[in-house]
Design brief:
By secondary structure, this protein is of the alpha+beta class. It contains 12 helices and 20 strands. Strands 12, 13, 14, 15, 16 and 19 form a 6-stranded antiparallel sheet that branches. Strand 1 (about 40-55) and strand 2 (about 60-75) form a beta hairpin. It is elongated, with a radius of gyration of 27 Å. The two termini are about 15 Å apart.
Length: about 450
């Protein structure tokens, strides 16, 4: 029953998310066409057979069978139609008018992404405190890129390639967007400046770079497991594990202490605990669990909610969308050049699953998810692939340079190639989605 409920929520959320984004995209084409007095014959949400709708003026407004897109059909839009040369036909208009109609759809999606994310920021953004804090490294994975480069726990990354990294979020973004590219890290280590070269690896399944570091997070105890080593030692929620002392040295922060506990293999360990402003020493022997040695004390990740004014929210939204667009282009470029797997791409099944998950978290999270999908939809449609808006724009640019229109036969072939490419791409991403969904369940 729970699986059926989850499926139902995902399906309804998916239809809502896709319906809104497709409507906004097609409305962009429709509104500019109407503004320029180009006749619109059909405004459809969905492809294929007409299910319902109504006709007003020259336009048939309809819902169609396949909800994975939509279209606006304008008079005289296709070169193989019998054109009368009337002023309300699309191809009778100057290229500037046609460009305005075509570009309007993707621009509406990009604009919606900015507005939705601005609304999310204005409503108040809950964020893990360490993400907006200084990029202080809490632990380094053994044999990772960071470890091989000489980065150690306690280092603070001041800049990468001369660009300042004031927060952990800035550091993370710089690493994620530069997989397989050597980066020059400027590090502050106990007051000394150290410069290291680090080449992020590609994280399988994401296409983004990573180097094997985790942030410094104070080990404030949220709760302890019943029957755990922490409970036996008398730890309780609200305590802070300040440090862990071993023969190898003193370790602090959740991630570094966790590494030492796992490596200790159930040997007694000495911890400094802060409670009500006082620090005392406690010996705790980790219990062996299915996940390995654990003390059973869960860290309390501090969450801060930052609320922005409208102007600041809009500015922050634009900056975040630019960052996400940059990451998208980097990932697409890596897929095209074969440096990243096409498995990183998601399709309708993944969108449906994430739509349901976002909806279950509330309207704020759903709106932020819709902003992300709207951005991706706008960028995808700008790619110079025949049949997409970007392909039409590229074709108009070629014809403008040539100072003549390409033949109908050439245009038909380009559309056929673009259609086959998109069908093949859709098959691949749906196959990826099915594989990921099976793993998820």
């Amino acid at each position: 029953m729970e699986t059926l409920n989850s499926f139902g929520i995902s399906l309804i959320s998916f239809l809502f998310v896709l319906g809104v984004l497709i409507f906004v995209h097609e409305f962009g084409h429709y509104a500019v066409a109407k503004l320029l007095k180009i006749r619109v014959d059909v405004f459809s949400l969905g492809f294929g057979k007409r299910l319902a709708g109504f006709k007003r003026g020259d336009t048939d407004y309809r819902l169609s069978l396949i909800p994975l897109g939509g279209y606006v059909k304008m008079a005289g839009e296709n070169p193989d139609e019998e054109l009368s040369g009337a002023d309300d036909e699309f191809l009778s208009r100057p290229k500037s008018h046609r460009f305005a109609v075509v570009i309007a759809g993707p621009l509406m999606n990009l604009g919606l992404a900015v507005l939705f994310l601005a609304a999310f920021f204005a409503a108040g953004v809950p964020q893990l405190a360490y993400r907006s804090g200084p990029p202080l490294i809490g632990a380094v994975e053994p044999d990772s890129v960071a470890a091989q480069a000489g980065i150690v726990a306690g280092d603070r990354v001041v800049a990468i390639d001369g660009e300042a990294t004031p927060s952990w979020e800035d550091l993370e973004f710089k690493i994620q967007t530069n997989p397989d590219i050597p980066l020059r890290f400027q590090i502050d280590r106990e007051g000394r400046e150290i410069n290291l070269e680090v080449k992020p690896r590609v994280r399988e399944g994401f296409g983004a770079g990573f180097i094997g570091i985790t942030p410094f997070v104070p080990y404030k105890v949220q709760r302890v497991d019943p029957g755990s080593a922490a409970e036996e030692a008398g730890l309780r929620g609200g305590d802070e594990i300040v440090s862990l002392k071993t023969a190898q040295g003193t370790f602090s922060g959740f991630h570094q202490i966790r590494q030492v506990v796992i490596a200790a293999d159930s040997q007694p360990l000495t911890f400094d605990i802060r409670r009500d402003g006082e620090i005392f020493e406690k010996s705790i022997t980790p219990h062996t669990t299915e996940e390995g040695p654990r003390i059973g004390a869960y860290v309390d990740y501090e969450v801060k909610t930052k609320q922005y004014g409208m102007v600041e929210a809009l500015r922050e939204s634009v900056a975040k969308n630019v960052q996400l667009a940059e990451l998208t282009f980097v990932t697409v470029g890596r897929i095209i050049t074969g440096r990243a797997s096409i498995k990183n791409m998601s399709g309708p099944i993944d969108i449906a699953r994430f739509s349901g998950m976002a909806a279950s978290e509330g309207w704020a999270v759903l709106i932020s998810f819709m902003a992300l999908v709207s951005l991706q939809l706008g960028l995808l449609n700008l790619l110079p692939i025949p049949i997409l808006d970007g392909g039409v724009i590229a074709l108009m640019a070629v014809e403008a340079v040539m100072r003549r229109d390409l033949s109908i036969r050439v245009k038909e072939r380009l559309v056929q190639i673009g259609f086959l490419f998109l069908v093949a791409l859709m098959c691949v991403v749906i196959f990826n989605d099915i594989n990921k969904s099976l793993s998820f369940f």
